[in-house]
Structures are given as structure tokens and as C-alpha cells.
Design brief:
175 residues; mainly alpha; AhpD-like
């Protein structure tokens, strides 16, 4: 599978997703590694095996093994952190003052440029709806020199990939 096969699998009522998917795949606001990692981390976070398979097949070969591993790690660690920190953010109280006591070593040593990892973590956090994490990642990205256009591009990828996953969950994918 590839981006073209994902577009072909989308029903006519999801034409906007097809157009967005194609446009974002050719967007040059992000580096090729940033773009590929954002697509892959977003696909994993969207929890649709067909979408994940297609986007790893499309972008995995274009990335270093370390970058591919880091994109997967961003999805994994943020899958945990987004639940925990969304709870802290929404409930308030003393929870924000307490140590999380969850291992998050990959954030300090992701194996790729820290800004790329933060961008992928931002995309996953947007999908998972963790405001506290999005604020933190956005701050880290801006401090690293990532532009608002680049951050927006990553979130646009996340939104589109998630929309594709949701759509394909509701239709039968032809073999």
C-alpha cells in the first residue's frame, strides 16, 4: 500500500481527505524526514493498521532506521503521556505537583534531532487531544527554531491522517 492506495480506498464522500492527503504528501514546509516521521507517528496514533502499513511502506524506506524508530517511539511514548497529562490537565488539583513516576527516557535521547522528535510528539498529542502536551511541545519547537508554518504543517498531517483512519474504519477496504 501507499498514499495513492489510501486515496483510492477512500469513498467519494471523503474527497477532501483525498485532496489533503495528496497535497500534504507534496508539502515542502517540512524536511523529508520530518514529513515522513509525522505521517508515520500520526498513522500509529490513529490506530488503523491499513493506514499505518501504507504510510510506513511509503515513508519508511525514505528514512534512516533511527528516524523510523524515533517516529514509532514518539507515537508510543505520547500514547502513554497524552493519557496521563490530559488527566493532570483536566482534573487539576495536586496531580500537577506530583512526579509522574513514568519512564520517558526516549524523550531525552530519541536517536534523531530533538526538534524532529518534538514535532512528531506534537502531531501525536494533537491526535490524542492533550492540551498540556501540545503546549509543552509547541514551546519546545519554537525554542528550537521550528516555525509556526512547520508546526501547523505537522498538525495538518496529523489531522488528515486521523481523518483517513476514521473514514477507513467505517468502510470495507477492497483487497
Amino acid at each position: 500500500m501507499s498514499i495513492d492506495s489510501l486515496k483510492a480506498a477512500l469513498p467519494d464522500y471523503a474527497k477532501d481527505l483525498k485532496l489533503n492527503l495528496g497535497a500534504l504528501a507534496n508539502d515542502f514546509v517540512l524536511t523529508p524526514q520530518q514529513l515522513g516521521g509525522t505521517f508515520i507517528a500520526s498513522a500509529i496514533a490513529s490506530r488503523n493498521p491499513a493506514v499505518t502499513h501504507a504510510l510506513v511502506a511509503e515513508y519508511g524506506p525514505k528514512m534512516t532506521p533511527e528516524a523510523l524508530q524515533a517516529a514509532r517511539s514518539a507515537a508510543a511514548i505520547m500514547g502513554m503521556n497524552n493519557v496521563y497529562y490530559r488527566f493532570v490537565h483536566l482534573v487539576g488539583g495536586d496531580y500537577g505537583k506530583m512526579p509522574a513516576r513514568l519512564r520517558m527516557n526516549v524523550i531525552a535521547n530519541p536517536g534523531v534531532d530533538k526538534a524532529d522528535f518534538e514535532l512528531w510528539a506534537m502531531a501525536v498529542s494533537a491526535i490524542n487531544g492533550c492540551g498540556l502536551c501540545m503546549e509543552s511541545h509547541e514551546r519546545q519547537l519554537r525554542e528550537a527554531g521550528i516555525t509556526t508554518e512547520q508546526i501547523q504543517a505537522a498538525v495538518r498531517v496529523a489531522a488528515t491522517v486521523h481523518g483517513v483512519a476514521v473514514t477507513l474504519d467505517g468502510v470495507e477496504i477492497p483487497a
